[in-house]
């Protein structure tokens, strides 16, 4: 099932490690849909990419084989908890007045834009620029 991991921090790189006993030529490939890539991903391989931004999935493996993924990531909930004065989004929204909610929305939109700017874009990279 292709997906993005919306609970991951958008500005963070996630580490995905393939584990198990399977033939990587016959399955277990990592598919990065937005980039149009299918990557042979054998047991023990690791890759870093922003799971919250890139739609991804794995190709099924053969019956009787095992495939696991060890994923390391930063939960966006931790950043929200800190920004909300050490309370959940639900608690913050329940207690905040309309002005606080509007300010919070503005801060998160600004943070979203800053987070996206941290990633090098292919067009800039291919021209020798950094960002």
UniProtKB/TrEMBL annotation:
Name of the molecule in the record: Uncharacterized protein
List the taxonomic lineage: Eukaryota, Fungi, Dikarya, Basidiomycota, Agaricomycotina
Q: Does the keyword Transmembrane apply?
A: yes
| Keyword terms, alphabetized | Membrane, Transmembrane, Transmembrane helix
Transmembrane annotation, as ranges: 30-54
